[in-house]
Structure formats: structure tokens, C-alpha cells
Q: What sequence folds into this?
């Protein structure tokens, strides 16, 4: 059992709260563009309902930037999506070959997902179609099957344990919080669920901490485990600045009636990410609980 005085009520956690509540808003205030030629929200308003009458293909083309961008290439890549669908169909064939005609919710959902990918040809067209049919939960419906698959791969292949092995070879009493912090941030790009992420890498990191704390008192080891656990959570939270999964909830409300997309705001997170990474790393390594 880890007392809340070592986690929620710790000096480190209180400092993190101040960082996000006080420093964060001030930093975004400084980052507001001073050039009045920048695009404003009024430029992104949908003035009528004509877009609802256009085809999915036409709407997808309307989202493209006026210059060549990697994001547009990937969003409109038929090769990428067809490759994924092809591997999906191979698995479906393998499943029925080895299990017979054993239908369950998992394989049915997977079949519909692969068929949808195949018929819509590009990621952007598929996401637009899902948005039209399921409104503000479309992003979750589209992405979660892939994140669940990645999580399953990390569980089944022992990748989480491998991360722990790598850390145990380089971890010291000084740098283990930083290693846990970086691990939490990196794994978040594959598993944007804090609970799922901790289930994959948490046990291996805690084992590393226990090995480092061999010979110390129980309270000291508990303190180390608490610091490592919070470090994973802080890393996961900060990397959300570059993996803004929470926008799936915010955009349908705050961006209703506009063409605003995640890439329109992502640039504003880069500088806060770098600054917060440095400050949080220092707090985790040197600040007492």
C-alpha cells in the first residue's frame, strides 16, 4: 500500500499542479500570434450546411493544405490503407481456417473494420464517413481498435518486459525516475490509455525499482515506487501534447461549426512540451517527495 502522502499529496505532485495551472496558461498567453495576418477562428467557420451535401471524397479533398504536406499524403494514401486491409483479410482467413465458422463480437467488429477500410480507400475518407454516421465518437471508434491491437502486441510479445530489462541495465538510484518518465511518454504514442499503458510497463519498472532498493528500508522503497509510478503518469500526460487524444472530446464541443482540425493547434504545443519536459524531469530527479 502506498500512502497518498507519497503520491497525490506529495511536494512533487503539488509542484506539477502549479506548473500546469499557473505556468501553462501564462505560456500559452505568450504564444498567442501577434501577427494579425494569421488565420482566425472566423476564417474557419462553416457558414452553411452545403458541406453535408457533398460526397465523402469531395469533403476529404477540401481538407487538403494548399502546399504539399506529409500529413495530407498519409491521410489520402490508398496504398497505406489497402495494405492494412490486406493484412486484415489475411488474418480473417487464417482465423476461420483455424477456428471454423466461429463468430464472436471480436471477429465481427474486426471484419467490419477491415471491410470499411477497403471500401473507403483512404484514412481521411473513412474517418469522414464515420464522423457522419457516429458524430463526436467517430474518432474513438476509428482509433481504439488499433490501439487495443498495439496493446495486445506489447502484452503478447513481452515488449513491456523487454523495456524493463533495458531499464534495469542502465537504471541507477538517481536516474530511475527519469527513465520511468521517458518510458511513460514513449509508450503513450502506442497506448493512449493511462491504465492500459501502466498495465504494460508498470510492473517491469516497479521490479527495477525494487531491485535498486534492495537493502533499503520499506518506507524508502515505497517512496521510490511512488516516484516511479508518478513519473510514468507524468510522462504519459505530457506526451498528450504531441498525441492529443483528448481532442476527440473537446473538438465536437469547442470546434462545433468550424473546419478546425488537430493540426491547426498542434504547433502551439511544441514549445510547452519542451519546456515542461525539462522542468518535470528536474522535479522528478531532484525534488524530495
A:
Amino acid at each position: 500500500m502506498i500512502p497518498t502522502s507519497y503520491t497525490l499529496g506529495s511536494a512533487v505532485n503539488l509542484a506539477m499542479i502549479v506548473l500546469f495551472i499557473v505556468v501553462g496558461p501564462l505560456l500559452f498567453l505568450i504564444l498567442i500570434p501577434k501577427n494579425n495576418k494569421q488565420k482566425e477562428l472566423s476564417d474557419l467557420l462553416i457558414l452553411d450546411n452545403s458541406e453535408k451535401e457533398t460526397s465523402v471524397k469531395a469533403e476529404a479533398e477540401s481538407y487538403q493544405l494548399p502546399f504539399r504536406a506529409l500529413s495530407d499524403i498519409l491521410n489520402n494514401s490508398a496504398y497505406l490503407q489497402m495494405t492494412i486491409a490486406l493484412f486484415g483479410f489475411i488474418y480473417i482467413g487464417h482465423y476461420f481456417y483455424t477456428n471454423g465458422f466461429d463468430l464472436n463480437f471480436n471477429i465481427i467488429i474486426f471484419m467490419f473494420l477491415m471491410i470499411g477500410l477497403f471500401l473507403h480507400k483512404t484514412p481521411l475518407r473513412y474517418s469522414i464517413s464515420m464522423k457522419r454516421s457516429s458524430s463526436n465518437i467517430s474518432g474513438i471508434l476509428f482509433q481504439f481498435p488499433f490501439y487495443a491491437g498495439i496493446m495486445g502486441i506489447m502484452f503478447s510479445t513481452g515488449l513491456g518486459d523487454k523495456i524493463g530489462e533495458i531499464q534495469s541495465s542502465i537504471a541507477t538510484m538517481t536516474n530511475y525516475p527519469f527513465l520511468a518518465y521517458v518510458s511513460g511518454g514513449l509508450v503513450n504514442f502506442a497506448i493512449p490509455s493511462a491504465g492500459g499503458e501502466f498495465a504494460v510497463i508498470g510492473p517491469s519498472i516497479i521490479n527495477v525499482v525494487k531491485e535498486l532498493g534492495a537493502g533499503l528500508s520499506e518506507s524508502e522503497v515505497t517512496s521510490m515506487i511512488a516516484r516511479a509510478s508518478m513519473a510514468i503518469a507524468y510522462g504519459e500526460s505530457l506526451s498528450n501534447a504531441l498525441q492529443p487524444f483528448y481532442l476527440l472530446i473537446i473538438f465536437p464541443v469547442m470546434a462545433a461549426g468550424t473546419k478546425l482540425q488537430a493540426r491547426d493547434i498542434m504547433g502551439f504545443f511544441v514549445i510547452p512540451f519542451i519546456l515542461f519536459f525539462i522542468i518535470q524531469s528536474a522535479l522528478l530527479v531532484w525534488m524530495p517527495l
